[in-house]
Amino acid sequence: MVVIWACASFAFFMVPFYIGTLDYNIYLMSTATALGEVISSVICLIVTHKIDKKKSISFFTAISCLGSLAITLIIWLYKGDD
C-alpha cells in the first residue's frame, strides 16, 4: 500500500510540474489537468466496480507507466516553435 501511495503521489505532484516546464499557457494546462482528473475518477469508479482490487491496481499502474512514457516521448520529440 505504501508503494502504491508513493507512485500516486509522485504522479500527482511531478507530472504537472514537468508539463509546466513546457512553454504552454498555465491556465490551459490547469484546466486540462482538472478535466483529466475528473475523467480518470469516473473511469476509476467504473473499473474498480467491474474487476477486483488487485487487478485494478495493476491495470492503473500500467496506464500510469504508459502515460509517463508518452509524456517523456512528447517532451523528447518536441522541438519548439522555431
Query: How many helical stretches?
Result: 3
Query: Which descriptor suits the 3D outline?
Result: elongated
Low-confidence stretches: none
- Overall average pLDDT: 77
Q: Round the Cα radius of gyration to an integer and report it.
A: 15 Å
Beta-strand percent range: under 5%
**Domain count:** 1
Distance separating the two termini: 46 Å
SSE succession: HHH
SSE class: mainly alpha
Q: How many beta-strand segments?
A: 0
Percent range for helical residues?
Answer: over 70%
Main beta-sheet strand count, sense and barrel state = none
How would you characterize this protein structure?
The chain has 82 residues and is an all-alpha fold. Helix content is 84%, strand content 0%. Helix 1 runs parallel beside helix 3 (53-77). The longest helix is centred in the middle third of the chain and has 25 residues, at 26-50. The protein starts with a helix and ends in a 5-residue tail after the last helix.
List the keywords.
elongated; mainly alpha; 82 residues
Q: What's a quick, concise take on this entry?
A:
The chain has helices at residues 2-20, 26-50, 53-77. With 82 residues, it is mainly alpha-helical.
